[in-house]
Each structure stands twice: as C-alpha cells, then as structure tokens.
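Figure 6 in text form: structure in, sequence out.
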C-alpha cells in the first residue's frame, strides 16, 4: 500500500529517513537558536519551553530547510490540493514532561469574538488540514513518543456528536476519560530516528506519555490547509489573540 492509500484509509503514515541527519540537525539548530519568549510558548515549572508555536512566519530560512519539494509533493498528494501554511508547533519534552491525553486537533467549539458567535475551531478557516511531524531526536516508547490511531471520520462534527459531550471536551477536543482505554489499546506508537516523519490527518486521535529518560524528545509539527481555502494564518492568529485576552487557559490547552 503506497502512502496515499495509507493516508486515505488510515489517516496517517510514517516515512523513514525522509530528511538526512545533517538537514535534520540544521532544522533543530535553527529552532534552538530562537528566543522562545518572542513567540507564543508554554513552559514547565523549571522554565523549559516545552512548546513554541508559530515560528515559521518570521523565519523563512527555517521554512526553506524543512519545506522541500519532496515534502510538498507528499502533502499535496495526500490532501488533493496545493498546500498553504496554517500553523506550527515545536515540542521539546524533557524528563517527566507533559502527558497529552487522547485528543484530535482543531475540532473544538470556541466563541469567535470577531464573528460574535460559536465556531468550529480550525474548521472556521478551511475544510481540510494535514500535519507533518518531523522527528528531531530519537522518538521511543521510553521518551514519550506520539501514539496515533486510525481516523474514524473526515468530518469534525462526527467527533463532536459522538464523543464531546462535556464542556472541557467540547472546548479542547480532548476525549473524555471513559474513552481513553479504547485509544490506548488501538494506537500505533510513532517510534523512529531523527529525520523520520509522520504525516497525519489532524482528526486522527493521538496522545503521548511522559518522558522517562534524561534526553529531550524533540519534534516539529507543521500544519497546512488546502490552497482553495486560502491563506488563513493571519486571520486565525488574529482571532486567537482576541480569545487570548479573556481565555488564556483555553488557549494554553490548544
């Protein structure tokens, strides 16, 4: 089964040795050279920035490193359209770092202060999204690699109707605890070496456990939407900043 068939059937696939070690180190070194406080970030109690968000727009040299012709083709083959950058997220999980419970991305209910009504998260801006997670260190079971499950639907409303009944799940797209075992038992562990990539539909349930090693587990997740929906980065960022003024805890959860 080729990667397009895998994506259409399961919603995800892994490509080994997609980037060379040299290029992967350049991507990681570029990210590590940035001042995390100049970007939206989330930190552990010891000050470690375990998550830095939306760094590509201000760093064209970083984009030139990771967005190769080869990657562009793979993503466009899967989404069936040319790709447009939507957001990104660098995650550096240190020892005893954050646990991320089973969830999907972008399918949360949120009040849009610009439109003055309830909207469907990312799907306010586009109909299709695709993730690429770049492994920038070895990812193992011990250091808290991502676990991913097959998508159940391409429709975000499916998950909202079937699973998201309480207030927290509706606003974070995290599955209620009673469903966690189901996803823990059906997940594929995304283990691999630096330079491997995971391509997946944000509507694939996914989660990760804590890092039980002394080394950091580093990944860079970039999200794109289809070109037919246009470049929505600045509009979504504007809406998020409006929400941030009054709902910081909710934003941190995203």
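Output sequence:
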């Amino acid at each position: 089964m080729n990667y397009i068939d895998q994506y259409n059937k399961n919603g995800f696939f892994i490509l080994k040795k997609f980037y060379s070690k040299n290029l992967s180190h350049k991507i990681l070194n570029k990210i590590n050279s940035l001042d995390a406080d100049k970007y939206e970030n989330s930190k552990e109690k010891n000050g470690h920035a375990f998550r830095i968000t939306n760094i590509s727009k201000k760093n064209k040299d970083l984009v030139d490193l990771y967005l190769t012709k080869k990657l562009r083709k793979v993503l466009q083959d899967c989404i069936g359209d040319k790709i447009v950058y939507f957001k990104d997220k660098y995650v550096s999980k240190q020892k005893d770092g954050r646990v991320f419970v089973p969830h999907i991305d972008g399918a949360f209910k949120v009040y849009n202060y610009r439109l003055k009504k309830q909207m469907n998260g990312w799907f306010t801006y586009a109909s299709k999204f695709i993730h690429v997670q770049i492994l920038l260190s070895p990812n193992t079971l011990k250091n808290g690699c991502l676990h991913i499950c097959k998508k159940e639907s391409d429709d975000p409303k499916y998950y909202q109707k079937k699973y998201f009944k309480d207030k927290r799940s509706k606003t974070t797209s995290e599955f209620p605890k009673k469903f966690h075992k189901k996803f823990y038992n059906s997940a594929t562990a995304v283990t691999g070496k630096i330079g491997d990539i995971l391509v997946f539909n944000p509507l694939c349930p996914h989660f990760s456990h804590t890092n039980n090693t002394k080394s950091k587990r580093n990944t860079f997740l970039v999200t794109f939407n289809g070109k037919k929906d246009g470049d929505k980065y600045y509009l979504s960022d504007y809406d998020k900043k409006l929400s941030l003024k009054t709902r910081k805890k909710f934003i941190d959860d995203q």
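Caption detail: The longest strand covers residues 83-93.
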